């Protein structure tokens, strides 16, 4: 044997039948693979719709069939196709968690009807839909959703603003331009509609209303008219009227033209303190430079009670309307330019707390005007303020 262990024959008995062979297959090696379940047309439809649902979950809106983004455009077109089919909409109802296939309610008011007229099929060139000058008819059932003009209770606060704008139009510091588009309907803007000047006092929170193809956003406005009335029409409704009735916007004289893609960002303002405090009144060329999304007059109404205004009334030296500008970034940039001449003073507010105003600078008005022009043109990044010469010089 040479020391090697012998291996005996393996005792294996072949089953005598197919049934016995299958019974002996305890590991399932001989089991036939399961045939994949056949994908039905309903399954394919549901999978396609769930892609749209996932887009809505990720982006917070439905896909747009008109966008240049190919993937989104395909989903938007797919949703429109599903909405056009009653059968498909009914079949997908169990998986429609966001109500994308819900049939919208009928318009409850004329404002709702005009706001949803995306193709401008109801454009009113004849002015037949302008009922602002007609007597208000008393209705038995008033839901409060219809925008009607009513007396403005606090009109005395806005009357000086209208008088100021008319004075600016007379002396040429402001001018009228054709209505430039929806993006300019922002707080603080002045428009002329059918010969009546109106002021956008407030833009309400955005509401979302579903239509058959998309979710439309809309905002209620508080429009103050120079005749002492106000309206709470939707922003889109005012845009339609301004567009159809040759409305105009009131802008500063140095604005040559406004394009539809331009967005009104807010106001760059320059203030002068009327304080009788010797340490403030004795500083020449002291100006506050700031930004406001709404009218500056409202912003400074309580200046005498606020430490940021040095606890004293202020005078508006300049008010510029800025377009296509990110306000916070410009504010930081402008303050860095004049950082060397920032006023170093501590104020105490009405509660006895210390406050260090940060927007007051000792700089001539002419230099501020130059800086604002450079801000609007984008050239301010190439300049610094030289306190010794009291002028802006090109950055080396």
TrEMBL record:
Pfam families, alphabetized: MUG113 (PF13455)
SMART domains per UniProt: T5orf172
Bacteriophage T5 Orf172 DNA-binding domain location: 281-375
InterPro entries linked: Phage_T5_Orf172_DNA-bd
Domain of life: Bacteria
Listed name of the protein: GIY-YIG nuclease family protein
């Amino acid at each position: 044997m040479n020391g090697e262990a012998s291996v005996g024959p393996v005792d294996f008995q072949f089953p005598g039948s197919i049934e016995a062979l299958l019974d002996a297959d305890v590991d399932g090696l001989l089991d036939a693979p399961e045939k994949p379940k056949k994908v039905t047309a309903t399954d394919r439809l549901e999978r396609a719709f769930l892609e749209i649902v996932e887009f809505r979950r990720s982006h917070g809106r439905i896909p747009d069939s008109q966008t240049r983004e190919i993937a989104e455009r395909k989903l938007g077109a797919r949703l429109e196709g599903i909405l056009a089919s009653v059968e498909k909409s009914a079949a997908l109802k169990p998986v429609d968690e966001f109500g994308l296939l819900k049939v919208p309610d009928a318009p409850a008011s004329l404002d709702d009807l005009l706001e949803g007229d995306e193709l401008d099929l109801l454009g009113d060139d004849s002015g037949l839909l302008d009922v602002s000058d007609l007597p208000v008819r008393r209705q038995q059932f008033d839901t409060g959703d219809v925008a009607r003009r009513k007396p403005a209770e606090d009109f005395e606060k806005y009357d000086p603003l209208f008088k100021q704008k008319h004075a600016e139009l007379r002396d040429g510091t402001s001018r009228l331009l054709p209505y430039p588009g929806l993006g300019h309907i922002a707080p603080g803007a002045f428009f002329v509609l059918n010969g009546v000047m109106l002021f956008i006092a407030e833009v309400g929170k955005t509401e979302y209303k579903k239509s058959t193809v998309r979710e439309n956003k809309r905002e209620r406005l508080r429009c103050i008219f120079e005749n002492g009335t106000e309206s709470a029409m939707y922003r889109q409704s005012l845009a339609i009227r301004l567009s159809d009735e040759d409305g105009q916007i009131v802008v500063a004289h140095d604005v040559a033209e406004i394009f539809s893609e331009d967005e009104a960002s807010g106001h760059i303002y320059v203030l002068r303190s009327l304080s009788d405090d010797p340490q403030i009144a004795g500083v020449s060329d002291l100006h506050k430079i700031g930004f406001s999304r709404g009218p500056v007059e409202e912003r400074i109404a309580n200046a005498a009670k606020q430490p940021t205004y040095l606890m004293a009334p202020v005078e508006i030296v300049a008010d510029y309307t800025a377009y296509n500008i990110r306000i916070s970034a410009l504010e930081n940039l402008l303050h860095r330019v004049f950082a060397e001449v920032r006023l170093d003073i501590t104020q105490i507010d009405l509660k006895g707390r210390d406050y260090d105003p940060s927007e007051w600078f000792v700089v001539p008005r002419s230099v501020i005007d130059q800086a604002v022009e450079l801000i609007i043109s984008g050239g301010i990044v190439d300049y610094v303020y030289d306190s010794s010469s009291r002028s802006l010089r090109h950055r080396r």
